[in-house]
Specification:
By secondary structure, the chain is α/β, with parallel strands linked by helices. The chain is built from 29 helices and 21 strands. Strand 2 (about 55-60), helix 4 and strand 3 form a beta-alpha-beta unit. About 45% of the residues are buried. The chain binds adenosine-5'-triphosphate and magnesium ion (MG). GO terms for molecular function: helicase activity.
């Protein structure tokens, strides 16, 4: 058989990994050395040479985008196609398992995924319900703690809190939150994994089935697996599965979210006979870029130590731009992008990478102004926008009346006269009688006496509106036989049915009406469209546009073979995609757009032209990491990830003054910038500047060059009619366009146009 397409394009070390005999392998190698390529070709090799059928292979990637790319690549490598092959993220795979085995996992069939924002709202209600002080137990932190426990595989009852009262209360919140989720049929992100893991442990027949099915496990970005994911792999591998993991300890950037880089070494201990293969040649970047990356990461201690070299060209030097402020930074970056597009025509080759989502706005404004198409990954994603979640909450309720998170959102958006007092009555009843809000509402209507007539009518109106909506979508015919039958499991093997007496309203709605029409119908019937049309708060129009776009997205939506295999109906599949993909943009990938994303989400990707922006102390590295050596090293790895995304050109920028948290702050260039050897750097447009203790390292040596035609001298004390007294610290432009930066004693730092500034020298 001709397998040259699998091995010809590989170097010796890569080929060794791809063609290795059966066993466990760890491919440990630096950025851009072909780890992902090796993993993909290994799958091709297993299939073509070892005759492993696609359905026996499970490949785990870090993002949905990466899964899509891997599958597309595999389609080319495997002549018979990838049907039956499982490629996905841990969350995606766990989700599919739970859909297939909802009964055995103790979930209602129509369970919904709770995203981070809804989770926090639910925790908030739980905290209030327990009569706790929100200031002492902020919902955000409580949710974070719950997720960490889940990531470690811990349930509330397994947590030892000893005598510590705060921990004890947090465990209590965790317990109450779990109850609330169970009643409402909701599953948060961390729960997906934990449930699926428990499913393995509690249902040996199911575990055995998957152990026999997935005999080949391949995991990309292994350095960022957390304790639960690692346990998951171990359990699934059992004694027969063969595990192939690839990773780079220098790119471990999710420690703050519980990832354990120690898993890399643990792997060698836990999997008998596991071999390590190292790759050392980088194929991605020019040698200047690679040298810069190496020189930054070298400062970290405790590395596993890998060499990385390239046969590639030296390439251009790294351009560094010191911007006056964040707007100037954005202007500069977009100018460069325009030049690049004019020369090469490809917007998608350009990526702007930043430390925090909030930084994207300035770049977006500039891109809009210049009519350059762009796409933001992360940030406030489409499916996380309030109006989109409002609309989806109606659909969720029609699918599952006990979804309390959806109930709380839909019940008063748009407002329909169901006040907080009414809701409190329902919440109390729900809590006391351990029922969902929907059940509490029904029960209050039929036998309660706490609500006044008007409130009752409003609640009744809401319930019947949802019922009518569900009716319009049409109830489902019974679904075909599920996986449990195929496995020979008894039908009633569910440990405890969360909703033993489902109400008549609890039946599942299925897509008789096409999905897009369901959504359109819900948007109109709920009054959401009218509400947002009338809404006078600023961007009402774009909210209505977003609702229209939701209908469009739904009309283009197609179930994947995995969805169908998991037995999802169209609505459930759509809602799950909305929740799971919220972290990665809008699902659709537009063709030729500038890419904007955080450094965290750039992992594994590459672009010909990369802008690393905001390299300032306090921003990157972040303020919190500066005080903690461990965190600082993680930030440095993030810098390494950022630099190594660039193939041909790298541009780094920092602003001398930046508006953060509502006030102007002076910022020093990031230490990571100082760690790049000066010989590799081209400073862009050295400019007027006074020597002030802004710069560290080599920047301190930059001599201040003064301009002759300035109206005032740099360093001069001045007074301004509104801002008071200050010192001129910097200047830009010339003649009528001269702008001055003045540090005012009370008003802070300001940029002023010299011609209009009414400054009086003192
Ligand atoms: P990261 O650590 O960033 O995830 P990686 O180690 O997974 O990087 P890949 O993304 O697999 O690296 O490869 C980096 C680039 O080098 C890709 O464009 C890939 O196609 C290319 N590449 C890898 N190996 C070779 C090779 N032997 N010959 C030519 N190009 C290669
Ligand atoms: Mg990779």
């Amino acid at each position: 058989m001709d397998v040259s397409h699998l091995i010809d394009s590989l170097n010796d070390a890569q080929r060794e990994a791809v063609c290795a005999p059966p066993g466990h392998y760890l491919v440990l190698a630096g950025a851009g050395s072909g780890k992902t390529r090796v993993l993909t070709h290994r799958i091709g090799w297993l299939n073509q040479v070892e005759h492993v059928p696609p359905w026996a292979i499970l490949a785990v990637t870090f993002t949905n985008k990466a899964s899509g790319e891997m599958r597309a690549r595999l389609e080319q490598l495997i002549p018979g196609g990838t049907q039956g092959l499982t490629v996905g993220t841990f969350h995606g795979i766990a989700h599919r398992l739970l859909r297939r085995h909802w009964r055995e996992a103790g979930l209602p069939e129509s369970f919904q995924i709770l995203d981070a924002d809804d989770q926090q709202r639910l925790v908030k209600r739980v905290v209030a319900g327990l009569g706790l002080d929100e200031a002492r137990f902020p919902p955000r932190q409580a949710a974070w703690q719950i997720n960490s426990w889940k990531d470690e595989g811990k349930r509330a009852e397994n947590i030892e809190h000893g005598q510590h009262p705060v921990t004890r209360t947090l465990v209590q919140i965790y317990q109450a939150y779990e109850d609330a989720c169970r009643r409402a049929g909701l599953v948060d992100f961390a729960e997906l994994l934990l449930r699926a893991h428990e499913l393995w442990l509690k249902q040996p027949a199911i575990l055995e089935h998957y152990q026999q099915r997935w005999r080949y496990l391949l995991i990309d970005e292994f350095q960022d697996t957390n304790a639960l994911q690692y346990a998951w792999i171990r359990v699934l591998a059992g004694s027969t599965g063969q595990v192939f993991v690839v990773g780079d300890d220098d790119q471990a950037i999710y420690g703050w979210r519980g990832a354990k880089v120690e898993n890399v070494q643990q792997f060698l201990r836990d999997f008998p006979g596991a071999r390590t293969i190292k790759l050392e040649q980088n194929y991605r970047s020019t040698s200047n870029i690679l040298k810069a990356a190496n020189s930054v990461i070298e400062r970290n201690g405790g590395r596993l130590g890998k060499q990385l070299w390239t046969a590639g060209e030296e390439g251009e030097r790294i351009a560094v731009y010191a911007a006056y402020n964040e707007q100037d930074e954005a202007r500069f970056v977009i100018e460069r992008i325009r030049e690049y597009i004019a020369e090469h025509g490809e917007a998608k080759d350009c990526a702007i990478l930043y430390r925090s989502n909030a930084q994207s706005r300035n770049f977006e404004e500039q891109l809009i102004q210049h009519d350059i198409p762009y796409r933001v990954y992360g940030g406030l994603r489409f499916f996380e926008r309030a109006e989109i979640k409002d609309a989806l909450s109606y659909l969720r309720l029609t699918a599952n009346r006990h979804d309390d998170a959806a109930f709380e959102r839909a019940v008063n958006t748009p407002p329909r006269g169901i006040g907080d007092r009414t809701l409190d009555v329902l919440r109390r009843r729900a809590r006391n009688e351990r029922m969902s809000m929907w059940e509490a509402a029904l029960s209050e209507l039929s036998m309660g006496n706490e609500l006044a007539g008007r409130a009752k009518n409003a609640v009744k109106g809401f319930l019947s509106m949802i019922d009518e909506m569900a009716h319009a979508f049409a109830p489902s015919p019974p679904r075909g036989e599920g996986w449990s039958e195929e496995l020979g499991l008894p039908k009633d093997s569910a440990p405890d049915n969360p909703s033993p007496n489902p109400l008549p309203g609890g039946e599942r709605a299925n897509a008789v009406l096409p999905l897009a029409e369901q959504i359109d119908h819900a948007i109109v019937q709920s009054g959401l469209r009218e509400f947002y049309e009338k809404d006078s708060r600023g961007n009402a129009e774009s909210r209505v546009e977003n609702l229209d776009e939701l209908v469009n997205v739904a009309s283009r939506f197609e179930m994947t073979p995995d969805d169908i295999e998991a037995g999802l109906n169209e609505l459930s599949a759509f809602l799950s995609h909305a929740a799971l993909e919220a972290g990665e943009g809008q699902g659709e990938s537009w063709d030729n757009c500038v890419q904007l994303m955080t450094l965290h989400s750039a992992k594994g990707l590459e672009f010909p032209l990369v802008f690393l922006v905001g390299l300032e102390e306090g921003l990157f590295p972040s303020q919190r990491s500066i005080e903690d050596e461990g965190r600082l090293e993680e930030e440095r790895r993030l810098a390494y990830v950022g630099i190594t995304r660039a193939r041909e050109r790298l541009v780094i920028s920092h602003a001398e003054s930046r508006r953060m948290h509502g006030s102007e702050m002076l910022a020093r260039p990031s230490r990571f910038l100082g760690e790049v050897p000066p010989s590799l750097v081209d400073e862009v447009r050295p400019r007027v500047q006074v020597s002030r203790p802004l710069y560290a390292g080599r920047f301190a040596a930059t001599p201040p060059s003064l301009k002759e035609d300035l109206p005032v001298k740099l360093g001069q004390r001045v007074s301004h009619p509104s801002f008071g007294e200050g010192v001129v610290v910097s200047a830009e432009g010339s003649g009528a366009h001269t702008r001055l930066q003045v540090n005012f004693e009370s008003a802070g730092s300001k940029w002023l146009v010299a011609a209009y500034a009414k400054l009086t020298p003192l």
